Amino acid sequence: MEKHHTDVIIVGAGPVGLFAVFELGLYDMKAHLVDILDKPGGQCAELYPEKPIYDIPAIPVCTGAELVARLMEQIKPFHPTFHLGQMAEKLEKTPEGKWQLTTDAGTVLEAPVVVIAAGGGSFMPKKPPLKNIEAFEGQSVFYAVRKRENFRGKNIVVAGGGDSALDWALNLQPLAGRITLLHRRDDFRAAPDSVGKMREMVAEKKMDLVIAQLLDVKGDGGQLSSLVVKPEGAEAYDVACDTLLAFYGLTMKLGPVANFGLNLHENLIPVNTADFESSEARIFAIGDINAYPGKLKLILSGFHEAALMAKKAFAYVYPDRKYRFQYTTSSSDLQNKLGLEKAA
Q1: What is the rounded distance in angstroms from the CA atom of residue 116 to the CA atom of residue 112?
Q2: Are 148 and 242 within one domain?
Q3: pLDDT tens digits, residue range 184-225?
Q4: Which residue among 248, 273, 288 closes a domain?
Q5: Which residue range forms the structural domain that includes residue 190?
Q6: Staple 33 to which of 10, 138, 226, 284, CB 3.0 to 4.6 Å?
């Protein structure tokens, strides 16, 4: 059994969990992070590493992977410890009043404070209800785009009518040999601008649009050759393709976090808005996993929550020290922690 003692345990290594390392580090709190993925970054790294993000303050545009890389660079001075490819399985209180978290790999972490930054828990793609689709998954059927270059020259069908489907149809169009958007109806849930761009490309014959229901997949040895589709009121027919990207949304599974003894509301953790502490003292929830009146599920909201969480966490980690708020722009102490004095 591997056991570690630290100041704060962070469950989830997405952007909000990573920024929490920074805010905690400014006030001398060390953090260990646990994440079920094999790399930091959460949804940004797993679901849209090359998808543009436009609403990070002061960064007009960056990809999910670039945002994660910048956050990792920002927290380097604080030397966080990552426990990746592990699920937070059990949380219990020690006789000394600290929290002990055990992962499914047998790692044991002990700290006075736990921060849950697990997004919506474990996100799983909603798969088309086709009996033999598993045989093609990972070879010619995909539910996320890890690397755009892997799809260069492919004959791709993108299935779905939401933002992910439209975004990837537009983003992959310059790379694909041919690209077809498949949706069961001629009405889309995506941003109007994306829908407009898609229709322009269809009119210019740069993209195909098929309004039909996906019925079956055909191929051999894991490689697709075509899809069977059926328009409403018409006969089914085959659409030739070698790659299917199915974006039917994600289903959210809270997993073992649901058994941590916290009050939950619709699979989310209610918190107060002063410091984002949960119903259990010393357990905080930040990012998409929490709930409070007026909550906006934005990365920047999670960053704000991390800052206020760190202030309260300081009181638990250092009960005999007074919290002194400082600005990184003017505090030589904070700048020294960031390694800026040495660079000057």
Answers
A1: 14
A2: yes
A3: 999 998 889 999 999 999 999 999 999 999 999 999 999 999
A4: 248
A5: 127-248
A6: 10
Q: Which residue has the tokens 């601008």?
A: 193
Model confidence pLDDT, tens digit, residues 87-119: 888 899 999 999 999 988 899 999 999 999 988
Asked if residue 308 lies in contact with residue 322, where contact means CB atoms within 8 angstroms, the answer is no
On whether the CB atoms of residues 274 and 297 are closer than 8 A, the answer is no
CB atoms within 10 A of CB 336: 12
pLDDT class of 121 with cuts at 50, 70, 90? low
Pick from 252, 253, 272, 269: which is nearest to 261 by CA? 269
Domain C-terminal end among 207, 222, 248: 248
Quick one: DSSP state of residue 321?
Answer: S
**263 contact partners, CB below 8 Å, separation of at least 6:** 269, 270, 278, 279
Beta-strand relationship, 99-103 and 88-93: antiparallel
Q: What is the mean pLDDT of the chain?
A: 91
State whether 255 and 244 are in the same domain: no
CATH number assigned to the domain comprising residue 220 = 3.50.50.60
- 218 secondary structure, DSSP code: E
Whether residue 163 is found in the same domain as residue 230: yes
Residues 215-273 pLDDT 10s: 999 999 999 999 999 999 999 999 999 999 999 876 656 666 777 778 777 778 999 99
pLDDT band at 10 (very low <50, low <70, confident <90, very high): very high
User: Would you call 132 helix, strand, or coil by DSSP?
Assistant: coil
Q: In the structure encoding, which two tokens stand for residue 187, read together?
A: 């009405």
User: Is a pLDDT exceeding 50 seen at residue 344?
Assistant: no
The bridge status of strand 8-11 relative to strand 31-35 is: parallel
Instruction: Give CA–CA dist 286/276, Å, rounded.
Output: 7
194 and 113 fall within a common domain = no
The structure tokens 């966490």 sit at: 313
Which residues, including other chains, have CB under 8 Å from residue 5's CB and lie 6 or more apart?
A: 109, 110, 111
**Are 243 and 263 members of one domain?**
no
